[in-house]
Design goal:
42% strand; mainly beta; globular
Length: 101
């Protein structure tokens, strides 16, 4: 198992960042592994929404079937997925407002 974690401060209101990360049509602009969609959700994501994404890691392209497991607007979305190569992916996107100093 490999765990990757990354924190980033984004100088934008929490709701605006949520609007981007919860809209899967924007993944190509910020999700580094995203190669394309085989199947997108029929509407806004929510618990139970499914999608099929092509990702690329090094030279390997995998097709991942994701399901949204948690969706707490505007602070957290959790995706769980299984790939065509046997891979399993858990992706959590969490947002916390910061205090301006």
């Amino acid at each position: 198992m490999v765990a990757i974690s990354c924190d980033k401060i984004v100088p934008a209101p929490q709701q605006r960042v949520w609007d981007v990360i919860s809209d899967v049509s924007t993944f190509e602009h910020w999700h580094a592994l995203h190669e394309g969609w085989e199947e997108m959700p029929s509407g806004p994501i929510d618990v139970g929404s499914t999608m099929v994404e092509k990702i690329k890691v090094a030279a390997l392209v995998d097709t991942i079937t994701f399901e949204v497991k948690t969706c707490r607007t505007p602070s957290e979305v959790v995706f769980r997925g299984a790939g065509s190569t046997g891979s399993k992916i858990h992706m959590r996107l969490g947002l916390e407002p910061t205090r301006e100093t």
